[in-house]
Design a protein that fits this description.
This protein has two domains: 102 residues, Beta Barrel (OB fold (Dihydrolipoamide Acetyltransferase, E2P)), CATH 2.40.50; 107 residues, Beta Barrel (OB fold (Dihydrolipoamide Acetyltransferase, E2P)), CATH 2.40.50.140. It is built from three helices and 16 strands. 13% of the residues lie in helices and 41% in strands.
């Protein structure tokens, strides 16, 4: 994604597309809550691991896995991180105390594949426009363009509360390149043009970060710059 700015077909679906029965599809989600629930039953002393999952559209669903199975899988699930889930059961949520409004919940098993992943769009900001008010949605939008290390361009938009922290950095008098990383953004195709924007309360936006993603991008950027 970060390198090519292209769209590919996927076996992954949105949470809203899940239906009861064993799923042959997968989901890409952010774990927004993760906690262990102990059991009073002697047959199940370890209890369960409870997860609340959030997809790029903004929908949520509750997921449960036996804690013993979770330990056997030797997973490290961290709140706020992104994961791919494959092979699970979708069932009606009959819980007395519901954590989401979704009528369904997921049951995870030993056969369930849980894989961390990065869904980053990263690039150097080379132009931006001042925020404009979109009356139809009663909120502000800021458009800007980024380029990857091959010079390929991508249009981006940020909405609402995502704008101010980013605009403050854009407007600074700093000679260094501005590198922005948009994680779990909403990617759309308008005719032949691909654009990315934030999904409210799901997308994570980082500017000039210090992680390996930024370091790798800058290494590629400076290599391109010095070999023009």
């Amino acid at each position: 994604m970060a390198a090519s700015y292209s769209l590919t077909s996927s076996i992954y679906v949105n949470i809203s597309e899940l239906e009861p029965g064993r799923s042959s599809f997968g989901i890409k989600v952010r774990v927004i809550r993760c906690y262990r629930q102990l059991s009073s039953h002697k047959a199940d002393p370890d209890g369960t691991l409870e997860l609340i999952l959030h997809d790029e559209i903004g929908d949520r669903i509750h997921a449960t896995i036996d804690y013993g199975v979770f330990k056997d899988k030797k997973l490290d699930i961290i709140e706020g991180n992104l994961y791919k889930f494959m092979t699970f059961m979708v069932a009606h949520d009959m819980s007395k105390y519901r954590t989401t409004t979704n009528p369904f919940k997921l049951r995870l098993y030993n056969s369930t594949s849980i894989t961390p992943f990065q869904d980053n769009v990263i690039g150097r900001v080379f132009s931006y426009q001042k925020p404009t008010f979109v009356a139809k949605l009663s909120t502000n939008r800021m458009d800007f363009k980024i380029a990857n290390t091959q010079g390929r361009e991508l249009g981006c938009s940020l909405w609402s509360e995502y704008i101010d922290p980013v605009l403050e950095i854009f407007e600074k008098d700093d000679p260094r390149p501005i590198i922005i990383c948009i994680q779990f953004g909403k990617i759309t195709r308008i005719f032949d043009e691909i654009k990315v924007s934030n999904t409210f309360h799901v997308t994570k936006v980082t500017v000039n970060g210090e992680t390996g993603v930024f370091k790798n991008f800058l290494d590629g950027y400076y290599y391109l710059f010095h070999n023009l």
